[in-house]
């Protein structure tokens, strides 16, 4: 394929003229990027830049005119593509870091203190209940057990468990209304 524009640009580009190098890049880069994109390069624009960083320093020794330039440029592009494909084949794809999903993180001292304080407040409230009420509420809420399962576990009737479940929150409400130490839910 004869390309008179590339034939005209090549001599000044080989002499290191910046305007000619820019013009060569503008002529060939879109074609190189399209080739790399079509072949599945992970970062075609980055690889295109790498291609021209390899091609430009070797222009002075290039022979064959525009056809030689085009052949050499696409040879370098193919080599960069093969390198990219090999590199991706050797390592797992990277994923963005998500701190919220990192199991290696730990809560701040403040978060732990607040959590501990809240747990102490809940324990203090539960201590105000009768032991049977406390057992029923904890099994129902934290254990996620059904009334039937709680009745079996405690050796009580389902009716008794329902009454204890109903009376527990009422006792908590009464305790909170007469709350001398500021324990809140």
How would you sum up this structure, described in words?
This protein has 185 residues and is mainly α. The chain folds into 2 domains: 4-90, RNA polymerase sigma factor, region 2, helix turn helix motif (Rna Polymerase Sigma Factor, Chain: A, Orthogonal Bundle), CATH 1.10.1740; 121-177, Arc Repressor Mutant, subunit A. It has 8 helices and no strands. It has helices spanning 4-14, 18-38, 44-55, 65-90, 109-127, 131-141, 147-154, 158-177. Helix 2 crosses helix 4 (65-90), helix 3 packs across helix 4 and helix 7 (147-154) packs across helix 8. It is rod-shaped, with a radius of gyration of 37 Å.
Distinctive features:
185 residues, mainly alpha, Rna Polymerase Sigma Factor, Chain: A, Arc Repressor Mutant, subunit A, 2 domains, 8 helices, 69% helix, rod-shaped
What is the topology?
Layout: H1 4-14, H2 18-38, H3 44-55, H4 65-90, H5 109-127, H6 131-141, H7 147-154, H8 158-177
Helix pairs in contact: 1-2, 2-3, 2-4, 3-4, 6-8, 7-8
